[in-house]
Automatic annotation (TrEMBL):
Residue ranges constituting the HTH lysR-type domain according to the UniProt record: 45-106
Region (Disordered): 1-25
Protein name: HTH lysR-type domain-containing protein
Pfam family membership, one: HTH_1
GO MF annotations, alphabetized: DNA-binding transcription factor activity
Organism whose genome encodes this protein: Paraburkholderia sediminicola
Length: 136
């Protein structure tokens, strides 16, 4: 769920098709820039999905193989880029703190993934033509 590369490009071959050539991988990597910063992009959306799944920035960071500091900086940059924050963090303590998505964070994931899906569907013919040109 967290890694959303093009569904058509990332499939495990069955034993009968192991000798078949692997298909090229197609990924859409939309970014929304605000000045010099990437306000929103695939890494931040994947991080939001991990925060939603794990309930904390540190657990989300571990699941994605990144440092807590890097994840925190990405979340902070995202929240500062938005009119309303995408996450809500609670301090540690007896309950251990945590991080949850706000309705804005949920909406970002939904909209971003819809753009990816729509781009994949809308460009399927051109993608097929391009991938046929790739040596595999």
């Amino acid at each position: 769920m967290l890694s959303r590369m093009a569904d058509t490009a990332k499939t495990k071959p069955s034993p009968a098709t192991k000798s078949a050539k692997p298909r090229p991988e197609v990924r859409f990597r939309m970014r929304i820039r605000s000045g010099d910063a990437v306000a929103l992009g695939p890494g931040k959306v994947e991080l939001l999905e991990a925060v939603r799944e794990y309930g904390s920035i540190s657990a989300a960071a571990r699941s994605l193989g990144m440092s807590y500091r890097r994840a925190w900086l990405l979340i902070d940059e995202l929240n500062r880029s938005l009119k309303t924050p995408a996450t809500h963090s609670e301090q540690g303590g007896q309950s251990g703190g945590g991080c949850t998505l706000t309705p804005v964070g949920e909406r970002i994931i939904h909209l971003y993934r819809n753009v990816e899906d729509e781009a994949q569907r809308s460009c399927a013919k051109q993608i097929a033509e391009l991938t046929r040109l790739i040596r595999s």
